[in-house]
């Protein structure tokens, strides 16, 4: 199984920070993605961060990278985990957003099984944080809107 990790936003992505600029989304995404990749590798998994650059890599290029790697390893032997941290602010002050969620596509796939494990881990390790759910297709994972398909 090849595990691909996408870290969203880049150093040059405008506005992707907390109002006080203490949290830079590009930096935090990379810290999380790299920590996940290193943890997986230490446990014997074949993991790779697909955006090693600091600069923003457009979605189309990230998708192309994932598709090239997935074709090499086989679609059924590839997993994509995309990390996005959103610093909830309105430009001048912090908002009260809190929480965590996982997006999967409609219908049951192996991704749902992995997302189930992530939901259990989130519930255990993120006490007091909102865990967003959507049971419209029978599981807690959020279904992406049409703009993401």
| Name of the level-1 CATH class of the largest domain | Alpha Beta
Distance from N terminus to C terminus (CA atoms, Å) equals: 24 Å
Biggest beta sheet summary: 3 strands, parallel
Annotation field: number of helices: 3
Low-confidence stretches: none
Work out the radius of gyration. Answer: 16 Å
- Count of extended strands: 3
CATH domain topology of the largest domain: Aminopeptidase
CATH hierarchy: architecture of the largest domain = 3-Layer(aba) Sandwich
Give the oligomer, counting copies of the same chain as homo and different chains as hetero.
Answer: single chain
Arithmetic mean pLDDT? 85
- Strand arrangement, major sheet: 2-1-3
Provide the helix percentage. 25-40%
Which structural category fits the helices and strands? alpha/beta
Tell me, what's the shape? globular
Overall number of structural domains: 2
* CATH H level, superfamily name of the largest domain: Zn-dependent exopeptidases
Strand content: 5-15%
N to C succession of SSEs: EHEHEH
